[in-house]
Amino acid sequence: MEVDNEPNVPVRVQELWFDDGNLIIAAGFSLFRVYRGILAARSSVFQDMLSLPQPPDSELVEGCPLVRMHDTAAEVTVFLKAIFDSEFFQMYPSPTTLDVVAGVLRLSQKYSVDYLRRRALGHLSSAFFTTLSARDAWDDDSGTNLLGRSKHHGCFHMPSTTSQNNVLLRKSTSWPAPSPKPSKGLSRNCVKMTRPLL
User: Fold this and answer.
1) 3-class SS at 47?
2) pLDDT tens for residues 131-157?
3) What is the DSSP string of 137-153?
4) Which Gene3D superfamilies does the entry link to (predicted)?
5) What are phi and psi of 153, to 5 degrees?
């Protein structure tokens, strides 16, 4: 990601600044120039928001309407990149990081982009157990889970750099908070989930 480095000055995120774009999005001090129609087609929330008439004194940047998002610039960057760059956030088994999955999952839930939410949950379910029977099968003598994946298959290729991703993921998927004490029959590393991911 290329971003200018002056603090407290709005900067363009070059990989998401399209010269012919017709909507400016601001998140923190990052600016994105994207296509209004594509964003509205992917997100019912943006579709509703962008269909409202704009007041005559609304803020413009380079002749384009400005939308301020109250999300982190890092999350907005991966979210918009997943929408506008078809190579960036592909379905599992394409490699990704937990930070990317968490950012895409949180914002796709918030802004109703269902295909990205399903894609993010697919990445999560490849790396984490979604049922207790899958967790139990993981401990069998073969060293593979019910899908025949080895214990090293399905992991994210880079560690998470955000310590609060587990909280964000629980909020985005309605997962219960982990119990400090494991339930009977569960290992300390397994969290009992009340509903499947997909």
Assistant:
1) helix
2) 788 777 766 545 543 334 454 444 444
3) HHTSTTSB-TT--BTTT
4) Potassium Channel Kv1.1, Chain A
5) -85, 140
d(CA 182, CA 189): 8
Using alpha carbons, select from 27, 26, 23, 19 the residue that is nearest to residue 36: 23
Buried b / exposed e over 27-52, threshold 16 CB at 10 Å, is bbebbbbbebeebbebbeebbeebee
DSSP at 53: P
Count CB neighbours of 90 within 10 A.
13
pTM: 0.69
Beta strands in the chain (DSSP E): 11-17, 23-27, 30-34, 60-61, 64-69
Write the pLDDT tens digit of every residue in 157-192.
Answer: 434 444 444 444 444 544 444 444 444 444 433 333
Helix, strand, coil shares of the chain as percentages rounded to 5?
A: 35, 15, 50
Residue spans per domain, the chain: 1-71, 89-198
Residue 167 CA, distance from chain mean position: 13
Taking alpha carbons only, the member of 114, 123, 118, 111 closest to residue 165 is: 123
